[in-house]
Amino acid sequence: MEKESGTELALRFIAFRSVPYRSGLDVHEYLDDALFQLASPGGVDTGAEGEIFTKTFDYLEAALGDSAFQRWNGASFTGKFLMSLFEVIATGTSKNLAALDAMQPKDRNELLIEKAKSLPEEPTFSQNSGAGVRGTTRLTNLLPIAENLMAP
Fold it and tell me: Which has more pLDDT, 3 or 96?
């Protein structure tokens, strides 16, 4: 897999929050369509989405730092950036901001760390991520449950 740019990751984040993914649609087609929808007049409230983006990644940075999207091996977060973890952790965290805002920072950090550690063991996540799983399958099965997987 080619390395994604920060711009593509930001697009994925906003698209997954704002433009429903239609099952079976090629991921890059979906992202192209989402970009046009988001860039159209009235496509996205950039102020609100900017605040959500900033708060989501501030919380993830505070809790997980550079290891936010790496797999937990039982002792530490290690390895390369995993798109499946990014999609679920970032999207799910963003959709739980109200509950996360209500938590004390220490409790919020502990919760996000525990969710990131346990996510690969969650059956639906493990069956729909990793080598050999197509992006269409991954998005179809994981985006709808990201919010629940990251819920406090």
Answer: 96
